[in-house]
Each structure stands twice: as C-alpha cells, then as structure tokens.
Amino acid sequence: MKNTTMLRLLIICGLSLFGLCLPGCSVFEKKPAADTPAATAQTVYYTCDGCHGPQNIRVDFMSPKIIGQKKAYLAAKLRDFRELKRVNPYMNGVVAELTNQDIDNLAAYYANYGQGKK
Q1: Does any domain span residue 107?
Q2: What is the reported pTM?
Q3: pLDDT, tens digit, 9 for 90 and up, residues 15-26
Q4: What residue numbers bound the domain in which 17 lies?
Q5: FRET partner for 96 with CA separation of 20 to 30 A, picked from 43, 102, 104, 115?
Q6: Does the residue 117 lie in any domain?
Q7: What is the Cα–Cα distance from 111 to 90, expressed in whole angstroms?
Q8: Residues 6 or more apart whose Cβ sits within 8 Å of residue 106
Q9: Mean pLDDT of all residues in the chain?
Q10: DSSP notation for 17-60
C-alpha cells in the first residue's frame, strides 16, 4: 500500500514540475525577428553580438568582422546561410527563421553601425 501511495505522489510531483517548466521552454521557441528598428537592435544584442561582438570587439577570432560591411554583401551572406549555400551549423540555425525583411534590416544595422545610424 505504501509503495502505490509513494508512486502516485512521485507521478503527481513529476507532472506538476513538467507543467511548471513547459511554459518556460517557449522562450527557446521564439522566432528571431528584426522587423522594426527596436526588434533589430534586440536581435543584434541577443543573437549577433555574442560572436561578432558589440562595437566591433569580437569575442572569438573565428567570427568575421561585420560592422561597416556593405549592406548588400551582408544580406547576401545571411541569405546564403539561411538557404544552406554556406554551411555553418550555428549560423544556419540563427538565420533559419529570418525573413528577407529581417535580413535586410540586420544588414542595414551593421552597414550603418558606427556612422551615427545605429
């Protein structure tokens, strides 16, 4: 009798924890967006700056310098990553959900960075 009661208690606790944790996982399912200037800045801060660095201070030397590059070049490279023409598992995943407008906004952000047009 004690074993079934303990088993039921563990199942209830397990399901309760699962129910509490599940909504928190939706944070990871959120699609990146750069459809407004504020959203673009937020996407840059949370997604791009980790490797490419804020203010052109790169975190690792394997990631390219992208601040100040031409908008068309950056947009083309981001589309290549999205369409798997260029393969980098991290970049392919980062840009997979970006729309063409998102890509254009990110490219413009980095092309104009440091020229007073963040």
Answers
A1: yes
A2: 0.65
A3: 554 444 444 433
A4: 1-30
A5: 115
A6: no
A7: 22
A8: 34, 40, 43, 44, 48, 74, 75, 78, 98
A9: 76
A10: HHHHHHHHHHHHHPPP--SSHHHHHHHIIIIIHHHH-GGG--SS
Q: Total structural domains in the chain?
A: 2
CA distance 19 to 72: 46
Q: How far is Cα 109 from Cα 12, in angstroms, rounded to an integer?
A: 49
The identity of residue 74, as a single letter, is L
Residue 32 has pLDDT above 70, yes or no: no
pLDDT tens-digit readout, 43-99: 888 888 888 877 656 666 778 888 889 999 999 999 999 999 999 998 999 999 899
- Look at residue 22 and tell me if it is in a domain: yes
Shared domain check, 44 and 99 = yes
Determine the Cα–Cα distance for residues 101 and 108; give it in Å rounded to an integer. Answer: 10
13 and 42 co-located in one domain = no
